[in-house]
Amino acid sequence: MDLTINGVTRSVEAEADTPLLWVIRDELGLTGTKYGCGAAQCGACTVLVDGQPTRSCVTPVESIAGLPVTTIEAIGQDPVGRRVVEAWVAAQVPQCGYCQSGQVMAATALLQQTPQPTEEDIAAAMSNLCRCGTYNAIAAAVRQAAAQG
Question: Where does the chain cross the membrane (predicted)?
């Protein structure tokens, strides 16, 4: 099966129902996308599929064939993604950092779709879990990235 990951089309050997997360991590060696809960609840595995935040732990690889997938490894190539990463660093968001790749992906998708989000937009879009509780810093970084856009 051919997949377009981070702008590069790659052939992978995987069963159609294999979760995208395992193809990204195990087949392609892109380990920035994390496994968290395996039930699409925590968001650590969030990637962008055709610009939409997608929980890769429950997304069958077959369902995304032909659609572009962006992982954290390439998010800095996108101008919005680069702004989000810069805001994340400036706001010193990460503590343990485990959820951060999924958080950055969700924030990038939000700002690509809604360049000037309201507080309600941010709260709705940033539904990924953070065990360290950095939600205030996450929201501040999203606001900062939006202001720089």
Answer: none
What is the helix (H) or strand (E) element at residue 70, kind and residue range?
A: strand 68-70
Question: Which residue in the block uniquely carries the two structure tokens 């950095």?
Answer: 134
pLDDT tens, residue by residue, 80-104: 999 999 999 999 999 999 999 999 9
Q: Is 52 within 8 Å of 62 (Cβ atoms)?
A: no
Q: What six digits make up the tokens of 100?
A: 């951060």
pTM, full prediction: 0.96
CATH code assigned to 75-147: 1.10.150.120
Residue 140: strand, helix, or coil: helix
Domain 2-74 has CATH 3.50.50.60: no
Residue 111, token pair as written in the block? 């700002």
